[in-house]
Amino acid sequence: MGSDPQFAKYPNLALAQDIFTLTNPSSSSTSRQTSLKKLQDAISDHKMAPLYRHLAHPTEGLLNSSGEGSASRPATTARRTNGASQGPSGGIRSALIDFPWSEQLYEKIKLENDTELETFAKEEADAAETAGDTEVQAAKGKRAEFWARVGDKEKALSSYEAVFEKTGVLGTKIDIVLAIVRIGLFFNDKMLVKKQVDRAKALVESGGDWDRRNRLKAYQGLHLLTTRSYNLAAPLLLDSLSTFTSYELCSYSSLVVYSVLAGSVSLKRVDFKSKVVDTPEVKAILGDGEDKLATLTGAASAGRGAGDEDMNDASSSTPTPAPIAVNLTTLGTSTDKVAEMETPVDFTPLAGLVRSLYVGSYQAFFLALAAVEESFLSQDRYLYEHRVWFVREMRLRGYQQLLQSYRIVSLKSMATDFGVSVDFLDRDLAKFIAADRIPCTIDRVNGIIETNRPDDKNKQYTDVVKQGDALITKLQKYGQAVRLRGSERG
Q1: Which residues pair with 443 in a beta bridge?
Q2: Rounded Cα gap, residues 87 and 482, in angstroms
Q3: Mean per-residue pLDDT for 478-486?
Q4: Mean of per-residue pLDDT scores for the chain
Q5: Are 52 and 44 in contact (CB under 8 A)?
Q6: Among 191, 177, 115, which Cα is nearest to 144's?
Q7: pLDDT at 89
Q8: Nearest residue to 29 (alpha-carbon basis) of 102, 101, 95
Q9: Amino acid 17: pLDDT
């Protein structure tokens, strides 16, 4: 199994979600107040002076529009927009709730940071004099974790790299790289994340143990999700469901949401059924009562939240709170850390989306899609920037699934099936037809949609003709460029 992972505690990615919530126009005022309280408590408890300045400083802070003893600063002030420069909020929006700056608090926690750094310096010096390289590396590792804890991106990266260079243990090297990946995720630095994920893959392939190989799958899947590579992210995230232990990356509830959404938009219908609809880990959370009882044992169903969540409204004499996701991997061995990470989530919209898409209940599918956008896509920092694309692709998937069963279908009947107006369906389909995403034509005069499904041979013939024409054109241009006349040969 390998040794326990190191450097897995910081940074706390849940704080990055709280920062995003403060800037998210779709979040409720209650959730903003809750996130603000959590963020302020974390800054105070963990002495996060660099992050506090990065977010709340009256002239340099990403979120603050007013400061203590200073003039208000317009939220529209120009700031760097490069992905490597964005803060945890994932953009340059100012906070929708006041994030006050206190010079007194900043100086207090900064002084505590300086005291802690002096302790690390003394510990390193003592280790260098009286102990060996292992103790020196351990002291340097504490310093790197300190910078990750307090939210200083650049110093954390340089400290981790310094530890990496002096480390000979492969497992520790992988843990350091994964810690750097989380720093990139915290500060929404996609280029850093991509580079470090590739670095971690190379290290794992050179002899990493099963546990770190398994953890890397979740890291890869989440990275691909943030870059809108849902087709590549889906297999990795779905595979991670049965062996997930990377709670430093995200909660199991979040992993379920990411896996189901990625699979719903990218997998073919056969794979969608086998890997999403019928997967035990998904059934244990999104299934109805019978599905859950078939998936979980009696002891499991007696656990906290294991038998409360249903895809449909449960018939109960008393209302039940939103369920907590059941990770079958850690069931019965859950630690306090796991329990703390998991929060109640209402999976009803997600369950409705999966069920209605699979059974072809398209009006319910559109309603569930709207609910998923409101409850998940618009509230999650990794999903938010892709929400419009996701909704469009899911509408396309619904249209394609219905049209593949018919040669000709009435425009009015299809609009009725989806619960939309004929005009809306006409406009929406026209965009996909123009982009060659749906092989059909709309006859608005007769009010019908006629599908054009060329067989594979015709498609291959058309592709060969197109590619052949392009090749001939290139060869002709090349010939003109290199043709030598008789007089030039001499």
Answers
A1: 448
A2: 53
A3: 66
A4: 83
A5: no
A6: 177
A7: 58
A8: 95
A9: 95
